[in-house]
Amino acid sequence: MELFEQVSKDIVTAMKARDKVALDALRNIKKVFLEAKTAPGATEQFDDAAALKIIQKLAKQGKEAAETYIQAGRQDLADDEIAQVNVIERYLPKQLSEEEITLAIKTVIEQTGASTMKDMGKVMGLANKQLAGKADGRTISEIVKKLLS
């Protein structure tokens, strides 16, 4: 089942369960999906890869918003944001551990023949494609820098 359809079904489930947090998070996901589908230049095909990118972006934005709320002393708003991020993350694939990411990046480095920081762009491009949805871009970048320096 496609992510778009799954989110739509889960909205109905959340409505029946009267789960306000899940309902808000799922409606937000669906809204962004619909905006992406109808954006100028968008293709008719809206696949799970595009949906995963959107969900990752929403999760990242939610975490950043929670951090901002905590810094502003608004724990109540941070808790709401974190609860929504937890709902959003249900749709992401299981995140890899740092060791698994390092192993995957070492393989990418061998494939590209990279040896210096000048080759970081090649490594990052391939690593981001292979680890899409399974690892945070910032973590990938830090590990690539560590391995190439």
Describe the protein's architecture and organization.
- Helix 1 (3-17) packs antiparallel against helix 2, helix 5 packs across helix 6 (120-130) and helix 5 (98-112) crosses helix 7.
- The chain is built from 7 helices and no strands.
- The longest helix is centred in the middle third of the chain and has 24 residues, at 48-71.
- The protein is an all-alpha fold and 149 residues long.
Keywords:
149 residues; mainly alpha; single chain
Topology (elements, then pairings):
Blueprint: H1 3-17, H2 20-38, H3 48-71, H4 75-89, H5 98-112, H6 120-130, H7 137-148
Helix pairs in contact: 1-2, 2-4, 3-4, 5-6, 5-7, 6-7
Q: What structural class do you assign from the helix and strand content?
A: mainly alpha
Strand content: under 5%
Residue-averaged pLDDT: 86
Order of helices and strands: HHHHHHH
- The low-pLDDT segments are none
How much helix is in the residues? Answer: over 70%
Short description:
By secondary structure, the chain is mostly helical. It has 7 helices and no strands. α2 (20-38) packs across α4 (75-89) and α5 packs across α6 (120-130).
